[in-house]
Amino acid sequence: MKKQFTALAVGALTAATALLLAGCAPGTSGTGSDTSKVTASKTVESGKYTLTVWDQNNTGDIDTAQKKLNAEFEKKYPNITIKRNSQSFSDLKTTLKLALSGNNPPDVVQANQGYPDMGAFVSGGMLAPLDDYSSLYGWAHYFPSNLLALNTFSSDGKHWQTGNLYGVSNTGEFVGVYYNKKILSSLGVDAPKTLDDLTADLAKAKAAGVEPMAYGDLEKVRGIQLYGVVQAATAGAKAVQDLVAGKAGAWTDTANVDAAATIQSWAQKGYLPADANGVSQDAAVADFGKGKAAFIIDGTWDMSTIGSALGQSNAGMVALTPAGASAPVTQGGEGLAWAMTSKSAHPNAAAAYIDFISGRDSAQTMIDANSLPTVLPAGHTSQAGTLNASVYDQYASLTAGKSIVPYLDYSTPTFYTTLTAAMQDLTAQKTTPQQFTQTLQADYSGFVSGNK
Amino acid sequence: MAQTLIATATDAPRTRARRRWQPAAYLYVAPSVLVLAAFIVVPLLQTFQYSFYDWNGIGASTWAGLKNYAAVFTDVHLRDAFLHVSVLLLFYAAIPVILGLGLTIVLSHANRLRGVGFFRTVLFLPQVIASVVVGTIWVSIYAPHGLLNQALGMVGLGDLSRAWLGDYTFALIAIGFIGTWVNTGLCLVLFLGGVQNIEPSVFEAARIDGAGPLREFFGVTLPALRGQLAIALTLTVTATLKSFDIVYITTQGGPGTSTTVPAFEAFNRAFNTGQVGSAAAVAIALTVLIMVISWLITRLQPKETA
């Protein structure tokens, strides 16, 4: 009896497997977009309905700001109810794909830029192009063109920063060098302007027995920002932009090797903590906030944390200027793009929502939430000598000069994993700068040649 | 139970009658079979199917044949992941079982030790803490200025202190030790239960025959614990092979790729890097490995309880 049963079970399994294998392959081509049937209009669809929105603004000030904007939107359009699903960045990154491939995806989602996320969604036909809405709402005039470009893709999802617009962002972001003013004045140096300045300042701090730079890479995240800031200074804006977009250049180019060599020599000379790979990023930020280190390379998302820990008047932030250039260049861009799904039943309402939360009216709400809006309101001023003022000033000149270079993990779907592991190897002196860039190039060339 | 056995032995025709088609019986098992099918069997078959494709999880997929399986052996990252998990087996399964046995001997002989229950509870506690909490606790213990380095400094071994989870040599061992800490209590409780089932007269007989504590352990205790040993090994080995949480919380596979494990690779490939086919192949390979090892372990079990 037992044997019979086993035979039966094996038979059933084999049959089921054969059926599955013979059946259609997983993920057979995406469905055409339903929203294309609707004529774009600023008038939202009539009747009572719900807009489902997935965002990542689930903590602190930005969560409050999001709730406030949603309530205001519902007041403006009483027939629309917002159903919000808010998750952390990493949770959103892992669940959004599944939600989008279902039959009832959300109407509006926050999608990360670049090939791994937005590119994949576009290639699956999951996002609706927003170009018609862009002209209706005047997004092309409001948002800086280089930031809009980060949210564009060719309609097959293979070419980035060209083609259709798939979203707009309501926060700006950049990574810079935060410095402790007290420590710098005790060392007798000014805030660095170039990479050479920074290296010289790090050496002075080390000689004076002060921890030169706080850096924690236990979670395999911060390597992207450390390399990005240094590479922006050695390679300049155009080279990095073209490289990440897959347009030109190679990771093994001299400027990129130089950036790796600079970081490795910082680690060798003890400018970076020897145990950086075992220090959590929060611990590193906390150390800097307690005044233990002269510098930290960090993004504007930590501006309120650092400002309150170190004091607004004791902290400053600067983006480095490449040798021979006249304006600073640094890594950054914008928050996740607010995008519309192609299966949304109410595209006009979804577009109205996207405009409402990212357009002109939302900027002051973002500032009140200690965040950096994509576009600073005209005539915005903040108290001179504060950290906030230095961040807003830098951002204004970075966007004016179009000199923000994208996050490097946008390069290929696997680049985040490749680069973060390689950065740990580089700072731990496990690889040479040449080997480091070869590892990146191996990942990159496979993907770029597949997309040609 | 004994009565049923007798009944079946003496009353064969009735037994056969009982095995007749009884539709109601299927209703009883239906709920669990349906749940099992929906959440285990169908996903397993789907995963098996995905493993033969190149698929980013969204767009169209292309047939890949056995390429994803070949990569399990040829891709150096995947090979390393399986290598790392075999090191972890030592710390998650072998050492806890040995420690558990040692502690069992001590605790079962410690009639005069007050508060045995207390020690047992303390040693079992790590088992009931959520693994995310365990991971977070150990991240702070292993931090450069964490508890472990402070303790080393206090006893004059400050030279040994390091960022344990950021050290290429020690990160995997550090993660392994977390497993030892978690699993030892489980083994201990299982073994103590087993020892209590041994007839005291057997120990007495052994002692009268002149067996020392060692002889007694290998002659009486260990053979009697075969069933518990098999259970402890099955639980700890399976837990090791599918372990993902501790690595995810502590190192994300770093520094470099020195602490990656297959389950982490499967997760990362499926949800982050858009390599669903490869992730599925890793998951299937892992499933087969777990089944084979579990089967080998069940052969340890004494026949009468198997």
The general outline of chain A is globular
**Nearest-integer average pLDDT of chain B:** 87
What's the N-to-C terminus distance of chain A?
59 Å
Largest sheet of chain A: 6 strands, mixed
Number of strand elements of chain B: 2
Unreliable runs of chain A: 29-33
pLDDT averaged residue by residue of chain A? 89
Could you say what the CATH architecture of chain B is?
Answer: Orthogonal Bundle
β-strand amount of chain A: 5-15%
What is the count of structural domains of chain B? 1
Low-confidence stretches of chain B: 1-13
- Quote the distance from N terminus to C terminus of chain B: 17 Å
Helix/strand-derived category of chain B reads mainly alpha
Portion of residues in helices of chain B? over 70%
Helix content of chain A: 40-55%
What is the overall shape of chain B? globular
Q: Figure out the total of helices of chain B.
A: 15
Helix and strand arrangement:
The complex is a heterodimer of chains A (452) and B (306).
Chain A: H1 2-22, E1 49-55, H2 60-76, E2 80-86, H3 89-101, E3 108-111, H4 115-123, H5 131-137, H6 139-142, H7 145-149, E4 152-153, E5 164-165, E6 172-180, H8 181-187, H9 195-207, E7 211-214, H10 223-235, H11 237-244, H12 254-268, H13 281-289, E8 293-299, H14 303-310, E9 315-318, E10 330-334, E11 337-340, H15 347-358, H16 363-368, H17 387-400, E12 404-405, H18 415-427, H19 433-451
Parallel strand pairs in A: 1-2, 1-3, 7-8, 10-12
Antiparallel strand pairs in A: 3-11, 4-5, 6-8, 6-9, 6-10
Chain B: H1 2-10, H2 12-18, H3 23-50, E1 53-54, E2 62-63, H4 67-74, H5 76-109, H6 116-128, H7 131-142, H8 147-154, H9 171-196, H10 200-208, H11 213-224, H12 226-241, H13 245-250, H14 262-271, H15 276-298
Antiparallel strand pairs in B: 1-2
Helix pairs in contact in B: 3-15, 4-15, 5-9, 5-12, 6-9, 9-12, 12-15, 14-15
